[in-house]
Amino acid sequence: MNTTDWIAQSVSKLRPTAKPKSPRSTHERLKATLRHDEEAMSPRTLRQTLKELKTIVDPMVSEVEGGRRAEAMMDWYASAALPHRRDLWLLMSEHFVADAAHVKKAQEQFAAAVGTPDEAAAEVLYRRATVSPRRRVLQRFSANPDGVRFLVDMRAELQPQLKSDKRLLALDVEMEYMFSTWFDVGFLELRRITWDSPASLVEKLIKYEAVHDIRSWDDVKNRLDSDRRCYAFFHPRLPGEPLIFVEVALMNQIAASITPLLDESAAPADLDKATTAIFYSISNTQTGLKGVSFGDSLIKRVVETLKEEFPRLKTFATLSPIPGLRTWLNKNAPAEVVKAWERVDELAENAPERRALMDWAARYLSDEALNQGKPLDPVARFHLGNGARVERLNWGGDPSAKGLKQSYGLMVNYLYDLKRLDKHRALLAQGKIPIAAAIKDLYL
Q: Each residue of 178-190: pLDDT tens digit?
């Protein structure tokens, strides 16, 4: 390296590193004439796109014409690259907001009407004032026969962008709110999926299974055998597309391990002796419906359906993974103990390390591991929120690589005691985890 190059390189190291510029808002871009390198649409194209969005909800335009314009935008979106789609999201998020002056006036009128006969009407007018034009845009899209599918897919594509760009949150929250209404359980149909169901539907079962991966067609056939049941919720605007499904094994006792349930060579259980329904896998299928709750209603409906078909069923429980356990143990358990658990499959039944793991796992599922009054573990949060209780920990319940990685192979049973669901929810609301005596005995 010559002297000139050395000086240039040295000087460059002394220069302060320029801070990355914040991305321009669409308001700024609309007023500009030139596009920045990282921006997909030019200011001119952005202005034209905003104009086309506004014409979709123009009050002077009929529903039919508004629908036609929405369909044209959907056609454009289908062939648009992700950066251009993202600009469309930003326009909907930043520009279609409620009129602040109108909201303030309605709020003042409501406050003045409190305690008078006009209070109820003023409250309705205030709520109407807070509704953003963004909702109307989404409604115009949804009127298209493929509109709901379009919006659900759009929100799924938007999800990975939210952490890096908070400007998109308004659109995301609006869509979640609308979906919670459109996908209310009153509009959903519970259907059983069997081996005789259309192949396309069985293939979706394989695709969306999120708890225990389906390895083959023999595997899925085993899960749909005579001693099994699989149910899913469907929505009339998404025909043939399960929103959430649950897999159930009919047995004569609470299952302690997933291995026999997934054993393709095992003979079907005797349904005449079945007293217990084990929910061993629940999977949501639509990323775009994140935040819309189906699980509580699904379990209730499935329990009712099973009781009608099998009056002898008395026990309804899960065999569930503990996905957050290992991460929590790495942060909270003694380092030397955690190290010993790395050879968990070699531990003898009476080994102190084994006892310690069960002890710490019980603590993780108890009041000792709460976050803002809610269970840390996502699966625990779901089942306990539905009124179940922590019933039993199972050593070696899932010896698969995934099971060992998540929880050193431990699994847990959550019991749905149909007479105590409300009581358990009340306990949880007080920050108390409903747990069986067998769990308390592990760590008390």
A: 999 999 999 999 9
pLDDT band at 131 (very low <50, low <70, confident <90, very high): confident
Domain 186-318 in the same topology as domain 26-97+132-182: no
Mention every residue, 6+ apart, whose C-beta is less than 8 A from residue 222. Answer: 228, 262, 263, 264, 266
317 bridge partner residues: 278, 415
Q: Which CATH architecture has domain 186-318?
A: 3-Layer(aba) Sandwich (3.40)
Strand partners of residue 282: 246
Q: Which residues of 353-389 are buried (b: 16+ CB within 10 A; e: fewer)?
A: bbebbbbbbbbbbbeebeeeeebbbebbebbbbbbbb
Integer CA distances (angstroms), 425 to 173, 234, 237, 428, in order = 26, 27, 33, 5
Query: What pTM does this model have?
Result: 0.87
Beta strands 315-318; 370-371: pairing state: unpaired
Of 108, 111, 107, 112, the C-alpha closest to 127 is: 107
Q: Name the H helices within 159-264.
A: 169-182, 199-208, 217-223
Enter the tokens of residue 339: 């190290």
Give me the amino acid identity at 162: L
- DSSP codes joined into one string, 171-182: HHHHHHHHHHHH
Q: How many CB atoms lie within 10 A of CB 152?
A: 25
Q: What φ, ψ does residue 390 adopt, rounded to 5°?
A: -75, 115
Q: Which residues are catalytic?
A: 320, 383
CATH number of 325-443: 3.40.630.150
Which CATH number applies to 26-97+132-182?
Answer: 1.20.140.90
Please count the other Cβ atoms lying within 10 Å of the Cβ belonging to residue 15. Answer: 7
